[in-house]
Amino acid sequence: MNAMTQTELHTLSNSHLDALEEETIFILREVAAAFERPTLLFSGGKDSLVMLKCAEKAFGAGRLPYPLLMIDTGHNFKEVTDFRDLRAKELGAELIVRSVEDSMKRGTVRLAHPGESRNVHQSVTLLEAIEEFRFDALIGGARRDEEKARAKERIFSHRDSFGQWQPKAQRPELWTLFNTRLQPGEHFRVFPISNWTELDVWQYIARENIALPSIYYTHKREVVDRRGLLVPVTELTPPKDGETVVVRDVRFRTVGDITCTCPVESDAATPEQIVIETLAADVSERGATRMDDKTSEASMEKRKKDGYF
């Protein structure tokens, strides 16, 4: 068999992305049709920006049929939250922000110690927002390739009145038929880009010329090497005794709470260059960059059963 030409490879790649985009648009429209009070979880990160692009194509610019929702730990990277606000304003979309800090003031979240990561407590604030706005469907940007627990979850993930996910009681999704029946107090988490990979996301970002927060691309940053992770040096994550602070060229593969998100060493300055890096990566983005996924206490499956995203 003759080797494929660059044109044939480009066509194949575009056909694959077209199929993923078509599926995502179908799911986004299905949510709008099936639920009364849906919302799209929007952090300003790359996956939510890809979803937002598909939503624009599904409904038209400035015509999103549901609000955007952000659960803010108060420890997010400013580059990302600023970009979140900018995109919401550009789209004329309603942006609802609810903060873990407010849950702490109400006493519904209590930290074990001041330095504890707030990331694991987002589920409490999320459930409070669901109750406040009576949301019946939350659209999220989780992908199956990110983590084992996410690989188990359906696209339409049924949650009980406590926001909990029951892996053994998931509803079948044969032939893209989704069972969206709800009892009072229940809701769904919906993941339109479940079948995308990190490589798909970056190829789509490159093709659609999607703007991202600057920290997704190479920049110089002070870091310390801690158990194989490059921990960013910030007020929230200072170096420990004996650690050496160095300046590296890094980028973030995923963004989240500052206290648990690490960059990777990289000189990739464009989506195309990141596509090449991703092709060579042998560790998932969460495995390579998230401190909170390294311990059993913070396992994703337990957190999802507790009502996490």
Give a structural overview:
The chain folds into 2 domains: 6-200 and 297-305, Rossmann fold, CATH 3.40.50; 214-294, no CATH class. By secondary structure, it is α/β, with parallel strands linked by helices. It is 37% helix and 15% strand. Helix 1 (6-34) packs across helix 2 (46-59) and helix 7 (198-208) runs antiparallel to helix 8 (271-280). Mean pLDDT is 87; it is low at 294-298. The termini are far apart. The protein is globular. The strands form 2 sheets. The chain has a 6-stranded mixed beta sheet with strand order 3-2-1-4-6-5, sandwiched between helices.
Question: TL;DR of this structure?
Answer:
The chain is α/β, with parallel strands linked by helices.
What's the architecture of the largest domain, going by CATH? 3-Layer(aba) Sandwich
CA-to-CA gap between the ends? 46 Å
CATH topology of the largest domain: Rossmann fold
In what range is the share of β-strand residues?
5-15%
Number of helices: 10
Mean pLDDT over the full residue set: 87
The total beta strand count reads: 10
Main sheet makeup: 6 strands, mixed
What is the ordering of alpha helices and beta strands? HEHEHEHHEHEEHEEEEHHH
Rounded radius of gyration (Å): 19 Å
CATH C-level label of the largest domain? Alpha Beta
Name of the CATH homologous superfamily of the largest domain: HUPs
Content-based structural category: alpha/beta
